[in-house]
Amino acid sequence: MSSILRSSLPLRFAAFSRAFSSTGTKLNVAELRVVGRLGSDIEEMTSKNGKPYIRYAVAVSSLGPPPTEEGAERETFTQWFNIVDFTPSRVPFLTAGKFTKGSLVLAEADIRPSADGSPMYRHRRIQLLAPSSKRHSVEDSEFVAGQA
């Protein structure tokens, strides 16, 4: 019986071993992922310093708790995420017309604490998951510029 345990022991631990590498594993991650629909076409803007950047808002809708009354509909809640990206090389690609209002996108950002301890988000990438369609368009009445 003990020989069976001994022979299976190395196999169980082998799954957790790592091939030789001179770099450490990346165990700690602080990131934000937002999957939702664009509230408007991605806009190209210019900062006060004359640097180009892009701005867009992503709407994320989720269902609320089940209704307490019989026959009542479940509420839907929408959160808005306002995102800016100051990477000049991305401006032409993102403003070329593929990222339009209602498109389903994945936006990713790294989270780091700022000097005062509040979270600071650094936009990393945006990916088009599905182009917009009339069926999935975001209503103008839901979006108020400058509010999240």
TrEMBL record:
Protein's name according to its UniProt entry: Uncharacterized protein
GO molecular function, one term: single-stranded DNA binding
UniProt keyword terms in alphabetical order: DNA-binding
PROSITE patterns membership: SSB
Domain of life the protein comes from: Eukaryota
Name of one Pfam family that matches: SSB
Organism: Tortispora caseinolytica NRRL Y-17796
